[in-house]
Amino acid sequence: MDIDLNELKQKIVSLSKKNEEKINALIEAKKEKFSGLLTDSGAAFMIAKELGVEIENSVTAITKINSLKDGMSNVDIITRLKQAYAPRTFDKNGKKGKLQNLILTDETGEIRATIWNNDVKKFTEQEIIIGTCLKFSNCTITEYNGTPQLNLSYNSTFTIEKESEELPKIKTETTELEGLDSGLNNLTIKATIKDIYPLREFENERGKGKVMNFILKEGLSEIRATAWNDLCEEVKKYSEGDKILIEGAYTKEGRDGVELHLGWSARVLADKSE
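Now predict its structure.
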């Protein structure tokens, strides 16, 4: 049974022995910590969990994606990674951090998940690729733009799971550099870095940004690639001669032909396929 926000707050007040003013302040602080991405009810459920207040619609068993609803807490799900966007930096009231959005799927549907700071670091260090089975534990569900979203808080965890036959397979195809046309999206590319050029900063009517060019080669084929903003930091981790895997790239016509671009939906990983 779902509990409305006022009823939820009254239950927290009653069982935590804190007054309503204090609970409201904790809820607002939690929303601020997550940069406005939490709803009031989502933040309240997180506060209840931290204060040891048991809520009737808390979930402890493995839950299917199509059963997830705004306000659920203590959620465990087993999913497959369908897409991982590049980590993004944010600055909220002078406090800097990182977040990363993921798309997760099981046999009942898919959901967007948001991981933060240390979890972003962990996800990056483990170089988790599309198609990997993952378990997310002790998470909360909030609603964003009318759609449920999985959130990891300080006591949430994720782990790589063994292969599951129940989860739908994710079909990924690597696109070769030879014969690439402009206007292609969501490309997966495996290639070797031939040259890397220095990062450049710029400013235009949309604000400040960063751009970095590099050359990729595959056999006799080469292409000029461009990384934008936070993706520049990902490319900087690699050197000439490194083999890399790029997910979520797109192509467009440049001055000297077709170019590969890495925007907000791309990722760069070490190619460990050999």
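The domain at 5-160 is CATH 2.40.50.140 (OB fold (Dihydrolipoamide Acetyltransferase, E2P)).
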